[in-house]
Automatic annotation (TrEMBL):
This is NAD(P)H quinone oxidoreductase. NCBIfam families: quinone_pig3. InterPro entries: ADH-like_C, ADH-like_N, ER, GroES-like_sf, NAD(P)-bd_dom_sf, Quinone_OxRdtase_PIG3. Gene3D superfamilies: Medium-chain alcohol dehydrogenases, catalytic domain, NAD(P)-binding Rossmann-like Domain. One of its GO terms (molecular function) is oxidoreductase activity, acting on NAD(P)H. Keywords: NADP, Oxidoreductase. The lineage of its organism: Bacteria, Pseudomonadati, Pseudomonadota, Alphaproteobacteria, Rhodobacterales. Residues 14-324 form the Enoyl reductase (ER) domain. Pfam families: ADH_N, ADH_zinc_N. Coiled coil: none annotated.
């Protein structure tokens, strides 16, 4: 193994053009960590926020973007007993995925589902950790409930639709074009709402309200989400593409006994992420191996063209996940 690796780093805060190829030393795994030789890395909205200077990595994490990857174990640190050099894994990363090698806690690695290639496996960790923890653990979605997922054609949305449908929920989703709405319906959405043409509040009110809403838009959607919720409904926020602030009348929230909550994945403790991984392994990985659910991939870009990948993501023309080919 050479001592240096190819990476893409953030040269300064700004648009996609600030992502620049560079070379760095290969990191060494610490206690409980593994070093992954990356084949593919996933591209996610938090990467763009970090690039723009709006989402700083945790103090102990790499300053390189990239929160998920798939590849093989290149080295194991002290205290790692259940993974070996050569094992193929996909992993949630604290950062550093835009590189040939990255370190992460061994407990944040999951085996590549049988029959799945590394390109698709790189689409799994960030999205499935986020959806599982927010929709099913925090949001407590149950069979028979009405679930509204905004951004249905995104990586998060395509995952949430499939899992919610499998576990028996009625799935409603918003998207911004007929093509995206068609894809959401193919994945299992009972009703797709083109937000450019319809009001999701009126659609959900006609159905008795949503029991759970997963939102990454924020801004003006926050008030409208609460209007679309049923009695005892839950709103789970995972991002704020339109801003984190809204003026809310809490009287209806109290009267309808609604819950407003949310989370971000990256700042959570290693133990919390390890527990999500264990739950995914038990409840979701068998579905992936059976082909019952699966990642939807948009386009692949070479690592050195990460800027083009970011431009694609921020243009919102994609359906599903975007990946970087590293090896």
């Amino acid at each position: 193994m050479s001592e240096t690796m190819r990476v893409v780093e953030i040269s300064q805060s700004g648009g996609p053009e600030v992502l620049k190829p560079a070379e760095r030393e290969i990191p060494a795994p610490g206690h409980g960590q593994v070093l992954i030789k990356i084949a593919y890395s996933g591209v996610n909205r938090p990467d763009a926020l970090q690039r723009a200077g709006m989402y700083a990595p945790p103090p102990e994490a790499s300053d390189l973007p990239g929160l998920e990857a798939a590849g093989e174990i290149a080295a194991v640190g002290p205290g790692v007993d259940d993974l070996e050099v050569g094992d193929e894994v996909c992993a949630l990363l604290p950062g550093g995925g835009y590189a040939e090698y990255a370190v992460t806690p061994a407990a944040h690695c999951l085996s590549v589902p049988k029959g799945m290639d590394l390109k698709l496996a790189a689409c799994l960790p960030e999205t499935y950790f986020t959806v599982w923890s927010n929709v099913f653990q925090r949001g407590r979605l149950q069979a028979g409930e009405t679930f509204l997922c905004h951004g249905g054609s995104s990586g998060i949305g395509t995952t949430a639709i499939q899992l919610a449908r499998h576990f028996g929920a009625r799935v409603f989703t918003t998207a911004g074009s007929p093509e995206k709405c068609t894809k959401c319906k193919e994945l299992g959405a009972e009703r797709t709402i083109n937000y450019r043409e319809e009001d999701f509040v009126e659609v959900l009110k006609a159905e008795g309200g949503a029991n759970l809403i997963l939102d990454m838009v924020g801004g003006g959607y926050i008030k409208r989400n609460l209007q679309a919720l049923a009695v005892e409904g839950r709103l789970v926020m995972i991002a704020f593409l339109s801003g984190p602030k809204a003026e809310i009348n809490f009287a209806p929230v109290m009267a309808k006994r609604q819950t407003i909550t949310g989370s971000t994945l990256r700042p959570q403790s290693d133990l919390a992420k390890a527990r999500i991984a264990e739950s995914l392994k038990a409840h979701v990985w068998p579905l992936l191996e059976a082909g019952t659910v699966g990642p939807i991939m948009d386009l692949e870009f070479p690592l050195e063209k990460a800027a083009e990948a970011h431009a694609r993501m921020e243009g919102s023309d994609h359906i599903g996940k975007i990946v970087l080919k590293v090896a």
